[in-house]
Design brief:
The protein is α/β, with parallel strands linked by helices and 617 residues long. The chain has 19 helices and 24 strands. β4, α6 and β5 form a beta-alpha-beta unit. α2 packs across α3.
């Protein structure tokens, strides 16, 4: 059976780029037009496959043979294939044929009669399968459409679709309570995008001139060029591109300098940032033309989870209430930043695309040098500009190198916050750092010594690196490569001798199991207070096996530190304290600095022995 071609088909006879003739807008925008597929709705091939069956079933209820019997489904499928193939052979895409006419053509092919009035037949065929197999609605559209209503801006749709206007209006109204007026469909108008006629029809029905309408869609050759040829403004929406393989449909985007008047957005809410809010309308009551940006910011953009970020452009952020725009100087590829790019961290907002990086160092608009974190998604710190709530900025101590501060902030936070907060060592207690040869573990050894801990126990698999940690302040080093029984006994002995009070665990996995076992049992080392086991990272694995007897026999308290277990203001306060200590104590941290333009080439070094830092400006 031929496909239904619901997903913005390339018009029959279209064989290249259409030459655009665009007349710049001479009046304020007064309405916004949206494309349907890949903008308002997600497309799912499995749903379309279900629609084929649903349409055959609807036709079996509408059509009957001359003797009154139902038409067999196989014959109906054959009729659909034949009729649609004939239209294509005549240079007409079925997407421009009204449902009522299609039903009539199927009836003639089958020599069948239509058992309901023609308009009712068209309505049933148009709506077949939409309730049974509803396409997912882009949640971005819902938020933006409601904001347009709040601002008094009409919203309509111009779409290539085999379903008629009333079908889509009912669907959008019932599903999300949205009303688009009008929804101009190719099957009812008889022309498909990029033909200017369908855009002009929408303009006529809305009673707004083309120059007063901004059209938003995902296809350059259908939405952007069609809108520009019709005198509309145009915005290219790329927010759903990453959901579909490159060979699924063409993702065309000419260089920005060739079409500077076209807005290019990765999220629909970015459209709102370029449009005025309530009370900012022009004298004619409409929108002022969207701000035409001469360029977008350079950034490390993630368009596919698990793949390195690419040096690309991203929408320029606009500050919201309570925010400041930071001009970024340096940003580090911390394990947290890497996990978010992989889509694995529990705090990740994985809506694509987004800018990599969670924190960095930069300058505010008034020239202050600051450390910043918690960048508003989909933006990130690995970009020229980052939108940050002012409460999540910290003045950078004088004399502290921006790249050093960017590299050290997260490792420092991971140990400073627990060692000065919930797991603060008591007088005479020691600290064990599990995973002391990594960037964060090495910092933890130094911070513990700086805070006055008398004995620091360090574990690590790389014995050469572990010996280096002794030079940073570790008093006892325990290689993790030794047999588990030997390691267990060594941990138990070191804990007993040094009065172990805190474990900072950067590894989890087998080594954490062994350490916890060493702290339990009938001959467990017991101090005046329970050992606080602080879980920081999961380099060795996301899970462990923990017998209940270990907890019952040890008095160990297991804590977590990080986003969620510690309030964001407390994390920022701890980072501020650490940075001031860093400026004076000059803790050692190995860094590898590259310009942001090399992000894709060097990303695989992010979890190496040196902290990868990108110099942005």
């Amino acid at each position: 059976m031929a496909p239904n071609r619901e997903r913005n088909p390339r018009p029959v006879g279209y064989s290249g780029t259409i030459r655009c003739v665009h007349v710049p807008s001479r009046e304020p925008y007064r309405a916004v037009s949206f494309d349907l597929w890949f903008t308002a709705l997600y497309f799912d091939p499995e749903i379309e496959a279900g629609w084929k069956t649903d349409r055959i079933r609807a036709l079996s209820e509408i059509l009957a043979t001359r003797d009154g019997a139902s038409c067999p489904p196989a014959e109906i499928e054959r009729a659909i294939d034949a009729v649609q193939s004939r239209f294509r052979a005549d240079g007409q895409d079925p997407v421009v044929i009204a449902p009522k006419r299609l039903v009539g053509e199927y009836a003639r092919f089958l020599d069948a009669r239509i058992t309901v009035p023609p308009d009712e037949a068209g309505r049933r065929y148009s709506s077949a399968g939409l309730l049974e197999h509803p396409p997912p609605i882009n949640p971005e559209l819902v938020d933006v459409a409601r904001e347009l209503v709040r601002r008094g801006i009409p919203a309509m749709m111009v779409t290539n679709t085999a379903r008629q206007e009333s079908t889509w209006k009912e669907f959008l109204r019932d599903r999300v309570g949205l009303r688009f007026e009008p929804i101009v469909t190719s099957c009812e108008f008889g022309q498909a995008k990029p033909d200017p006629g369908i855009f002009q029809e929408a303009s006529r029905r809305l009673n707004v001139p083309p120059s007063g309408i901004l059209h938003v869609g995902d296809r350059w050759e259908l939405d952007v060029e069609g809108a520009l040829r019709s005198g509309y403004g145009a915005a290219l929406y790329r927010g759903l591109w990453s959901r579909y393989p490159d060979d699924f449909y063409p993702k065309i985007e000419p260089p920005e300098n060739e079409y500077p008047e076209v807005l290019r957005i990765d999220r629909l809410d970015q459209l709102l940032e370029s449009l005025p809010g309530p009370g900012q309308h022009g004298a004619s009551g409409g929108l002022r033309p969207a701000r035409r940006r001469s360029s977008r910011v350079k950034a490390a953009v993630v368009r596919e989870l698990g793949k390195p970020p690419r040096f690309d452009t991203f929408d320029t952020p606009v500050a919201r209430t309570g925010e400041t725009i930071v001009s970024v100087m340096a940003a580090a590829a911390s394990p947290l930043a890497v996990s978010r790019v992989q889509g694995r961290h529990y705090s990740a907002d994985t809506a694509l695309p987004f800018v990599a990086g969670v924190d960095g160092v930069g300058r505010t608009s008034d020239g202050r040098s600051v450390y910043f974190s918690f960048v508003r998604p989909p933006f990130g710190s690995m970009a020229e500009l980052a939108p940050v709530a002012t409460r999540y900025t910290i003045p950078l101590p004088d004399g502290l190198d921006p790249t050093v501060a960017a590299a050290a902030a997260v490792p420092g936070m991971s140990c400073w916050v627990p060692l000065t907060g919930r797991a603060r060592p008591r007088a005479g207690e020691s600290v064990l750092v599990n995973g002391a040869t990594g960037v964060s573990g090495r910092m933890a050894v130094q911070v513990a010594k700086h805070l006055g801990v008398s004995t620091v126990i360090a574990t690590g698999r790389n014995e050469a690196k572990l010996r280096e940690v002794g030079g940073l302040g570790a008093d006892v080093v325990l290689p993790l490569g030794q047999p588990a029984d030997t390691l267990r006994a060594a941990v138990r002995e070191a804990a007993r001798r040094s009065h172990l009070g805190v474990v900072l665990d950067y590894l989890w996995g087998p080594s954490a199991e062994t350490i916890l076992e060493a702290l339990g049992g009938p001959d467990a080392p017991r101090g005046a207070s329970p050992v606080r086991f602080v879980q920081v990272g999961t380099v060795s694995g996301p899970t462990i096996t923990l017998p209940g007897a270990t907890l019952r026999s040890s008095g160990v308290e297991i804590l977590g530190t990080g986003l969620g277990s510690v309030e964001s203001p407390d994390l920022m306060a701890g980072i501020g304290e650490f940075l001031r200590a860093l400026a004076s104590a000059r803790f050692q941290i190995d860094t590898e600095v590259h310009p942001l333009s090399e992000v894709e080439r060097v990303w695989d070094r992010a979890l190496g022995e040196r902290r990868l830092v990108f110099a942005v400006a």
